[in-house]
Amino acid sequence: ASYVEYINENKDVIFDTPIYTDGEMDEITVEVARQYTTGYHENVMSFANNIHTHEGGTHEQGFRTSLTRVINDYARKNK
Protein backbone atom coordinates (compact mmCIF):
# COMPACT_ATOMS: atom_id res chain seq x y z
CA ALA A 1 0.00 0.00 0.00
CA SER A 2 2.92 2.35 0.61
CA TYR A 3 3.89 2.12 -3.09
CA VAL A 4 0.38 3.21 -4.08
CA GLU A 5 0.62 6.14 -1.64
CA TYR A 6 3.94 7.09 -3.24
CA ILE A 7 2.50 6.95 -6.77
CA ASN A 8 -0.43 9.15 -5.74
CA GLU A 9 1.42 11.56 -3.43
CA ASN A 10 0.83 14.55 -5.75
CA LYS A 11 -2.75 13.64 -6.65
CA ASP A 12 -6.03 14.59 -5.03
CA VAL A 13 -7.01 11.30 -3.39
CA ILE A 14 -10.53 10.47 -2.24
CA PHE A 15 -9.37 8.46 0.80
CA ASP A 16 -6.03 9.10 2.52
CA THR A 17 -5.27 5.42 3.07
CA PRO A 18 -5.16 2.98 0.14
CA ILE A 19 -7.46 -0.04 0.21
CA TYR A 20 -5.29 -3.11 0.76
CA THR A 21 -6.12 -6.80 0.81
CA ASP A 22 -4.13 -9.98 0.51
CA GLY A 23 -4.79 -13.68 0.44
CA GLU A 24 -3.40 -17.09 -0.39
CA MET A 25 -4.95 -20.10 -2.07
CA ASP A 26 -3.25 -23.23 -3.40
CA GLU A 27 0.17 -21.74 -2.55
CA ILE A 28 -0.53 -18.64 -4.66
CA THR A 29 -0.28 -15.33 -2.82
CA VAL A 30 -2.14 -12.25 -4.05
CA GLU A 31 -1.81 -8.68 -2.78
CA VAL A 32 -3.95 -5.82 -4.04
CA ALA A 33 -3.66 -2.14 -3.12
CA ARG A 34 -5.77 0.57 -4.70
CA GLN A 35 -6.52 4.21 -4.09
CA TYR A 36 -9.09 6.31 -5.86
CA THR A 37 -8.34 9.86 -6.96
CA THR A 38 -10.50 12.66 -8.31
CA GLY A 39 -8.82 12.32 -11.71
CA TYR A 40 -10.22 10.58 -14.76
CA HIS A 41 -7.02 8.71 -15.66
CA GLU A 42 -6.72 5.06 -14.68
CA ASN A 43 -3.31 3.75 -13.67
CA VAL A 44 -3.16 -0.02 -13.18
CA MET A 45 0.21 -1.55 -12.39
CA SER A 46 0.41 -5.31 -12.13
CA PHE A 47 3.31 -7.53 -11.16
CA ALA A 48 3.97 -11.25 -11.45
CA ASN A 49 6.88 -12.70 -9.48
CA ASN A 50 8.02 -9.14 -8.68
CA ILE A 51 8.22 -8.27 -12.39
CA HIS A 52 6.14 -5.36 -13.67
CA THR A 53 3.85 -6.70 -16.38
CA HIS A 54 3.64 -3.61 -18.58
CA GLU A 55 1.09 -5.16 -20.92
CA GLY A 56 -1.21 -6.51 -18.21
CA GLY A 57 -1.95 -10.14 -18.85
CA THR A 58 -4.50 -12.73 -17.88
CA HIS A 59 -4.02 -12.13 -14.15
CA GLU A 60 -4.83 -8.43 -14.57
CA GLN A 61 -7.85 -9.16 -16.76
CA GLY A 62 -9.04 -11.73 -14.22
CA PHE A 63 -8.73 -9.15 -11.44
CA ARG A 64 -10.70 -6.56 -13.41
CA THR A 65 -13.43 -9.09 -14.22
CA SER A 66 -13.68 -10.27 -10.62
CA LEU A 67 -13.73 -6.75 -9.18
CA THR A 68 -16.50 -5.72 -11.58
CA ARG A 69 -18.51 -8.84 -10.71
CA VAL A 70 -18.18 -8.27 -6.95
CA ILE A 71 -19.19 -4.59 -7.17
CA ASN A 72 -22.15 -5.37 -9.45
CA ASP A 73 -23.34 -8.19 -7.16
CA TYR A 74 -23.08 -5.91 -4.13
CA ALA A 75 -24.99 -3.13 -5.90
CA ARG A 76 -27.79 -5.50 -6.96
CA LYS A 77 -28.19 -6.88 -3.44
CA ASN A 78 -28.12 -3.46 -1.77
CA LYS A 79 -30.38 -1.31 -3.95
UniProtKB/TrEMBL annotation:
One of its GO terms (molecular function) is DNA binding. It holds the Pfam family DNA_gyraseB. It comes from Streptococcus pneumoniae. Residues 2-79 form the DNA topoisomerase type IIA subunit B domain. It catalyses: ATP-dependent breakage, passage and rejoining of double-stranded DNA. Keywords: ATP-binding, DNA-binding, Isomerase, Nucleotide-binding, Topoisomerase. Belongs to the type II topoisomerase GyrB family. GO terms for biological process: DNA topological change. This is DNA topoisomerase (ATP-hydrolyzing). Its EC number is 5.6.2.2.
